[in-house]
Amino acid sequence: MKGLDHLEHLDKQLVDELAQVARETVRDELREQTRRQRRAATLYAASGAVALYAGAALALAVGLALAIGLPGWAATLITAAILGAAAYTLREAARPSAPRPAPERADLAAGHDTGAPAAGGTGAATGAAGRATGAAYPPVPPVPPAPPSGATRPERPGETDPGPHHRA
Fold it and tell me: N or C, fewer C-beta in 10 Å, the chain?
C-alpha cells in the first residue's frame, strides 16, 4: 500500500503541473488574440471616423455645387433630403427581410406529401437564410384523404347531409 500512496502523490503533482501549464498556455493565447482584436478594432474605428469626415466633405461639395444655381437655403435643404434618403435606404438594407410565403410546389398540388410545409402558411416560417422564424405547425395535407371503398364519410358537427345524389 505504501508504494501506491507514493504513486498517488506523484500523479497529483503531475496533474497540478499539467493544469498550470495548460492555464498559462491558454492565458498567453488569449492575450495574443486580444491584442490582435484590439488592433483590428482600432483600425475599424479610425476607418469609420475618416469615412464620416469624407461623407461630410462630400455633402458640403454637393451643397456648394447646388448653391451655384440655387439660394443657399435651398441647396442645403436638397443636400439634407439626399442624405436623409441615403440613410433611410441604408437602414432598410440593414433590416432583416420579412418572411415570405413558400411558393406552391407541384408535388404538393398533386397530393404527394413530402413532409415539407404546404403552401398557405403551414409549417415553420423561414427567413431569407432558411432559419426558422416562427412557430412550427404540423404539415397539412393539401387534399383530404379519400374514405375506404364502401365506407361513408362521418358527419362533422355543423354539416348537413347533402343527400344521396351527392354521394360517390
Answer: N
